[in-house]
Amino acid sequence: RGRHGGRLGAVHVTNRAGKSFKVGSGFTDAERENPPPVGSVITYRYNELTNGGTPRFPVFVRIRPDVSAADIQAAGFS
C-alpha cells in the first residue's frame, strides 16, 4: 500500500523509559529494503515529548552497532 508497499514502513521502538512507539521517518530507500534487525539499538531524534512522555515526530538517525539490547538491559534500562 502506498510508496513503501512491501518494504519497511516503520519500526516499533521501546525507549529507555519504557515507552513504545513507531519510528517511520528518516529511513533511506536502501534501509527500507534492508531494515534494522529485530533487537537492534537505534538512534532517533524528535521534536518534543507528548504529555505522556512519548517522543513526538521521531525520526530515524542510525543503527547503533556499538550497543546491543543486552547492554541496555544490563545497565538497568528496560
What does this structure look like?
- The model has no long low-confidence stretch (mean pLDDT 91).
- By secondary structure, the protein is an alpha+beta fold.
- A two-stranded antiparallel ribbon has the order 1-2.
- The chain contains 2 helices and 6 strands; from the N terminus they run E-E-H-E-E-E-E-H.
- Strand 1 (11-14) and strand 2 form a beta hairpin.
Detail the topology: elements first, then pairings:
Layout: E1 11-14, E2 20-23, H1 29-33, E3 42-45, E4 48-49, E5 55-56, E6 59-63, H2 69-74
Antiparallel strand pairs: 1-2, 3-6, 4-5
Note the main attributes of this structure.
78 residues; alpha+beta; two-stranded antiparallel ribbon; two-stranded antiparallel sheet; 14% helix
Count of separate DSSP helical elements: 2
Largest beta sheet: what is the strand line-up?
Answer: 1-2
- Total count of strands: 6
The general outline is globular
Mean pLDDT: 91
Radius of gyration: 13 Å
What's the helix-strand series?
A: EEHEEEEH
- Distance, first to last CA: 33 Å
The level of helicity is 10-25%
Q: Given the helix and strand composition, which structural class is it?
A: alpha+beta
Instruction: Characterize the main sheet.
Output: 2 strands, antiparallel
- Amount of beta strand: 25-35%
Uncertain segments of ≥5 residues (pLDDT<50)? none
In short:
The chain is α+β, with helices and mostly antiparallel strands and 78 residues long.
